[in-house]
Amino acid sequence: MSIFALIDCNNFYASCERVFQPKLNKKPLIVLSNNDGCVIARSQEAKKLGISMGVPVFKIKNIIQKHSINTFSSNYALYGDMSSRVMSILAEKCPDIEIYSIDECFLDLESITNDPVKWCKKIRQTIFKWVGIPVSIGIGPTKTLAKVANKIAKSDITTKGVFSLHNTNDVEIDMVLQNIHIEDVWGIGRQWSKMLHINKIFNALELKKSSEIWIRKKMGITGLRTLKEIKGIPCHRLELEPIQSKSVRCSRTFGKAVGEKEKVFDAIRLFVQIAASKIRKKKLACRAIQVFVSTDRFNKNIEQYSNSAVSTLITPTSDSIVLVLEARRIFNRLWKDRYLYRKGGVLLLDLFPKQTIIPGFFPDTKKENYQLMQAIDKINEKFGRNCLELGIKSKKSEWKMKQHNVSSKFTTRWKDIIKVSAN
DNA sequence: TCTGGGGTCCTAGGACCC
DNA sequence: TCTGGGGTCCTAGGACCC
Predict the structure, then answer these.
(1) Which of A115, A118, A254, A386 is most buried, with most CB under 10 Å away?
(2) Where are the domains of chain A?
(3) What confidence tier does A195 reach under pLDDT thresholds 50, 70, 90?
(4) Is A11 left (phi over 0), alpha (psi -120 to 50) or beta?
């Protein structure tokens, strides 16, 4: 029997910003999405002010001003690096680890300790001391129950950040489940919550007591698994091997709407290159590429259009030149004049490891291109992403993102490293 | 004026085959 | 007039996650 522990960094992006600017402790702080559009992370103080997750910034302008909330554009170089620091501490202490997202991982403590709560309290202190990031830990017999426990660990300060449902009797578990709203259960999103509410299921205990056949019918195999996990029957195991990605996407909302074909393709061309360099880094190749464009779905005053198309490649590739040419063909098919485009993107699909590729009769990746890609990747890695691009680099692209307040790359760029003086 | 980005899995239905 | 049964593969859309 596994003992699942879910380690979750508290308000992760907000906490990362704070590590290097301790003057922000106890102050409300928010981190924004690309384009500085939505709120994607909030410190505890900001949550208390009623700022909800995902809210568009323009709707809370007043609150931001009134409480002088510290506002940051997202800084993924910093968050990614802080994440790997936290994860490496955990991986060293517990080899059975599944990194689930940038700020979360599951552990199996079964072979590590007889006292999971004690072990978790200690690791929590270690992480805070060594990296400066506060974490919460939930423990349970299934991943879903560990998630539930984590929720308690976060919201109930008397738990001091660790809460366990492992070796807990049914009566106690049910008392906990009764206080978990159905929409807070892992695997139950907006649509299913709505459906369950209509059917008078409002909390996790009511879900636990509902009929398996009915849930299977209404929510498919996925829903049934969630129900079983709530009952304490594991349906999701720990994924020890990092899962091979099956697709890679690069898409952006443009800083403003764009109507000219070549300007939109400037963006698409760059997205292809970003996505291609991502798969090259993972030593993968793709067998298909998808391109999509769309107008501003929030603007009710303009005519809407969105479309996407996929193209399959004869020989799998990670060559930016080949992929840009293919994207161009797809793009020409999709493009319609007279619309104002607000978003575009590229997906590289059907990925698999490069070594396993059998060259086709007409190979479409030239050796010279391969070397060129390697050179481009090296230069971009050294001098900053997209410093070298295919095509003509426009000086000022209309579609570029807005980012007004990005913090420094404290941990990944030499000139941003904080200096400590002796006095 | 201003509404993110990147993933996965499941299912139903159509095309096609024998 | 009659209109099978069983299988695979692919795709689009819908749900979820962070």
Answers:
(1) A254
(2) 1-168+411-423, 169-243, 247-383
(3) very high
(4) left
Asked whether residue A340's C-beta has any atom of DNA/RNA strand B within 7 A, the reply is no
- Using a 7 Å cut-off to protein CB atoms, list the covered nucleotides of chain C: 11-12, 14-18
Rounded Cα–Cα distance for residues A292 and A142 (Å)? 39
Chain A residues 40 to 59 with C-beta below 7 Å from nucleic strand B: 40, 54, 56-58
Answer whether any strand B atom is within 7 A of the Cβ of A288: no
**In the predicted structure, residue A32 carries a pLDDT above the cut 70:** yes
| DSSP state, residue A23 | G
Non-local CB neighbours of A213 within 8 Å, separated by 6+ positions: none
The whole-angstrom separation of Cα A344 and Cα A162 is: 42
Pure H helices in A179-317: 190-198, 204-208, 212-230, 261-281
- Model confidence band, residue A365 (pLDDT cutoffs 50, 70, 90): low
Overall average pLDDT of the A120-140 stretch: 98
Looking at residue A31, its amino acid is V
> Percent of chain A beyond pLDDT 90?
75
Query: Is the full-model pTM beyond 0.90?
Result: yes
Spelled out in words, what is the top-level CATH class assigned to the domain A169-243? mainly alpha
Query: A263: which 2 tokens?
Result: 């300007």
pLDDT, tens digit, 9 for 90 and up, residues A371-391: 889 898 988 888 777 778 888
Query: Closest Cα partner for A144 from A104, A185, A94, A91?
Result: A185
Of A346, A259, A252, A254, nearest to A303 by C-alpha is A259
The correct CATH number of A247-383 out of 3.40.50.10260, 3.30.70.920, 3.30.1490.100, 3.30.2350.10 is 3.30.1490.100
Nucleic chain B: which protein residues 343-372 of A have CB below 7 A from it? 343, 345, 347
